[in-house]
Write a structure and sequence with these properties.
The chain is of the alpha/beta class and about 250 residues long. It contains ten helices and ten strands. The protein has two domains: about 1-85 and about 160-250, P-loop containing nucleotide triphosphate hydrolases (Rossmann fold); about 95-160, no CATH class. The longest helix has 17 residues, at about 175-190. The protein starts with 7 loop residues before the first strand and ends with a helix. The structure holds adenosine-5'-triphosphate.
Length: about 250
């Protein structure tokens, strides 16, 4: 156990979000720490992506109650671009395609947004892509899903974000790419970034320092990842959600 709780970078206080008459986030209170990787696990439809979208401030997710703090300042009324300027970034479950933008300028502009510059070829090497082959490409539909995901990851490294929300970074990428993702996670942690990682993978969970189990829009458990890994073997905590048949049958 750590002697003292690390600095809190993102804090949610009693966040409730109702969409189409359904409570998608239900009185969620969470703290995310500097230089730590936090995994958010839970069944399909639990509200994990919604949590990420709400922290990022996507337009459809601004109508919640409760408070969101970034480094002690309330941000829940800020639009997405202002949160991005504060160094909060989101890597999508399905990475965006920017028709016509070159890979080189896509990565460089990520760093320029923070007032710095990077060697985009080096960033590509970090995610295992050959600069000679990919720097001349465009970020568009001619790239495979896994390639786009790696390029988005390279742009995140270039950005050196304060907070990075990653929605299933391992989905749709091959075994080799997962190791590059782990390297990137390690780098972000060493830089002091706060990583919030949504995952369905026990392997990815193992890389985290702290974890939350989200269920039916509620945080039903939190703690060290060893404790949460039981979720993947069916040892869930009792709760009221209807998506995971294990939870009705198994006591913690
Ligand atoms: N804009 C919306 N309007 C209505 N319901 C929504 C909206 N966005 C999400 N939902 C619902 O909110 C619930 C949580 O969705 P979310 O995508 O956050 O789940 P998740 O935990 O990320 O699931 P998965 O593991 O399948 O990706 C789902 O039931 C979803 O259908």
């Amino acid at each position: 156990m750590e002697d003292k709780e690390p600095d809190t970078v993102i804090r949610l206080e009693n966040v409730t979000l109702i969409l189409d008459g359904h409570k998608i986030l239900d009185s969620v209170s969470m703290s995310f720490w500097e230089g730590h990787i936090h995994a958010v696990v839970g069944p399909n439809g639990a509200g994990k992506s919604t949590l990420a979208h709400t922290i990022m401030g996507l337009p459809d997710y601004l109508g919640h109650t409760g408070a969101i703090f970034h480094r002690g300042e309330r941000i829940e009324k800020l639009p997405i671009d202002k949160r991005a300027r504060r160094g909060i970034t989101l890597a999508w479950q399905e990475p965006a395609r920017f028709q016509g933008i070159g890979v080189d300028s896509f990565i460089r502009s990520a760093a320029e947004a923070k007032g710095s510059s990077v060697d985009s070829g080096e960033m590509l090497k970090l995610v295992g892509l050959d600069p000679d082959r990919y720097l001349v490409r465009n970020v568009d539909k001619t790239l495979s899903g896994g390639e786009r995901k790696r390029i988005e990851l390279a742009s995140i490294v270039a950005m050196r974000p304060d907070v990075v929300l990653m929605d299933e970074p391992d989905s749709g990428v091959d075994i080799e790419a997962i190791n590059y993702i782990f390297d990137v996670l390690e780098k972000l942690r060493n830089w002091g970034s706060t990583v919030i990682l949504i995952t369905h993978s026990p392997e990815v969970l193992k890389r985290a320092d702290h974890s939350f189990l989200l269920c039916n829009g509620q945080v039903v458990d939190k703690g060290r990842v060893e404790r949460m890994s039981g979720y993947f073997t069916g040892h869930c905590v009792p709760c009221v959600h209807k998506n995971n048949p294990f939870c009705d049958e198994v006591t913690p």
